[in-house]
Design brief:
The chain is mainly beta and about 525 residues long. It has one helix and 37 strands.
């Protein structure tokens, strides 16, 4: 949240190790979203209504500029219930201490609800005399966005119907419900309704450990949300990020008039058959979010402040890359870099056919069948990030263009961890071929852009100006620090031109969450 000139980041943290357990609400503050100072935990188990756990939640700024936190507590019976906390001293600019009043909990599951699947209250919104929040849940195998209303933020009443639900989707964790303007990139307050906005409902699916969202219309008088016919609930739906990205949260930043998204780049240290095993992670770079011009998807881009960390710069212009060729980008710290590149090609005629048998496959599966070393027609082309000198290790981020039987073009974007680390030869390492399709028409100008933020074990990539985003966690053994390299590559028959490439060495923030020892 943003409060009196300070950004507050609250996040689930285990002070005792990089595994799930002993969860507290860690608290960090910043004036620019780049440099962070760690404060003592804001919330930790201490009272009957949260003695067995203080889980996720949200912050809301109430009238009178009063911040309040809603969070899930596990009570003495291990029921998931919704509690609140308020600052002990509103005049403290950092809000170091938070109080959990004894009139908690505010919301408890009714008798017919599953009390072990009822968590993660959203930021509240106000309309027509009532506050509203969502709480994620599950009824049998149906994902639920339970809706609650309150006049005074203390006494909450469950609505007769959920705001939205969907069959065969399982538990909806970390729901987020917010409006985006139909025109432009400016953000709007969470309570904004009307014909000039479209609403987004994002949920984190506990069953897949990925996030999905729909775009649709919110009917405030009926308190119902109806997704557009261009987006669907569940595993076939749109994703904010097609990689190691979970439990994300947006907030409205009134100082910049933007909506900002933050996600958790969860660690991929688990075996292929146990991807939920690891729990350590990092926060992604904050992203500004807005609607695409056709209002069919969310677009994301790293915050402008990130550019203050840029150092040494290298440019490459009008570089032709033939099939099988690698061009090294020299002169930057390849293990910690920001790369923006635009690729172009003369023709789409050589695009390979999209196999009709793939019609029901997701992009990740298609990428695993057509990796960066599999030759194609138009593509694969892109970047080899965190690469060792002789390419024993590399994480390719690339595009591949297909032609469908309707003679249309389908663009695949991949961030493939399969070859990212030699660790995979002597131990099981979760190394998926993350991928998403890119909603872009290449027939007109025959070019596509890519931006990759490379930070040792994290590669965040933004395709086509942020239409498709993929975060990968990778663990090279050779391509580390000064031994890491960055290459441009093309394994397609069609030559590719690097119209423009700008790459920067990235400096570390001056203050990177120091003082984490409490």
């Amino acid at each position: 949240m943003y409060f009196n000139g300070i950004y507050h980041l609250f996040y689930q943290y285990n002070p005792k190790g990089a595994v799930w357990g002993n969860i507290v609400w860690a608290h960090s503050v910043s004036k620019d979203l780049i440099n962070w100072e760690a404060l003592p935990p804001a919330i930790y188990p201490s009272k009957p209504f949260d003695i067995n756990g203080t889980w996720s939640g949200s912050a809301t700024i109430l009238p009178g500029n009063k911040p309040i936190i809603l969070y899930t507590g596990l009570d003495a019976d291990k029921r998931q219930i919704q509690n609140y906390a308020v600052p002990a001293n509103y005049s403290d600019p950092f809000l170091r201490e938070w109080i959990k009043p004894d009139d908690n909990p505010l919301v408890v599951p009714s008798q017919e609800m599953n009390s072990s699947q009822f968590r993660d209250p959203t930021t509240a919104w106000w309309h027509n005399g009532h506050w509203r929040i969502l709480v994620g849940g599950k009824r049998k195998h149906r994902g639920m966005a339970w809706l609650y209303r309150s006049i005074d933020f203390k006494y909450w009443v469950k609505a007769k119907h959920p705001l939205h639900s969907a069959p065969e989707t399982g538990m909806w964790e970390c729901p987020d419900f917010f409006p985006l303007a139909l025109n432009g990139r400016s953000g709007v307050d969470t309570s904004k309704v009307g014909e000039d906005v479209k609403h987004i409902l994002k949920v984190s699916l506990d069953e897949t450990r990925y996030e999905y969202y729909t775009l649709g219309k919110y009917f405030p008088e009926k308190d119902r949300y109806v997704p557009d016919n261009t987006s669907v609930d569940g595993r076939a739906g749109l994703r904010l990020d097609y990689g190691n990205f979970y439990a994300s949260k947006t907030f409205f930043d009134p100082s910049k008039n933007m909506r900002i998204l933050w996600g958790w780049a969860n660690e991929s240290d688990a075996a292929d058959d146990d991807k939920a095993k690891g729990w350590a992670g990092v926060q992604t770079i904050p992203r500004v979010v807005w609607l695409s011009p056709d209002a069919k998807q969310v677009v994301q881009w790293p915050i402008k402040e990130l550019e203050t960390l840029r150092g040494q710069k290298v440019d490459i212009n009008n570089q032709n890359v033939e099939q099988g060729q690698h061009v090294e980008v020299k002169g930057i710290t390849a293990a910690q870099a920001d790369v923006e590149v635009t690729f172009s090609f003369g023709s789409l005629e050589k695009a390979e056919e999209f196999d009709p048998n793939w019609a029901n496959l997701d992009a990740q599966t298609v990428c695993s069948l057509r990796r960066s070393d599999v030759p194609g027609g138009v593509g694969p082309f892109g970047l080899l990030t965190l690469a060792s000198q002789n390419l024993e290790e590399f994480t390719p981020v690339f595009f591949r263009v297909f032609k469908t039987k309707e003679n249309k073009h389908k663009v695949l974007m991949c961030s493939d961890a399969k070859s990212s680390s030699l660790r995979l030869f002597n131990e099981k390492l979760y190394r998926p071929s993350f991928a998403g399709f890119v909603n872009v028409d290449l027939s007109a100008d025959k070019k596509i852009s890519l931006r990759s933020l490379i930070d040792h074990s994290v590669v965040e990539s933004f395709g086509a100006g942020g239409k498709t985003c993929i975060t990968s966690r990778v663990y090279p053994t050779l391509a580390v620090n000064d031994a890491a390299h960055l290459f441009i590559f093309n394994n397609g028959i069609e030559p590719v031109t690097v119209q423009t490439l700008s790459a920067w060495s990235m400096n570390a923030p001056q203050q990177m969450n120091q003082n984490l020892e409490f």
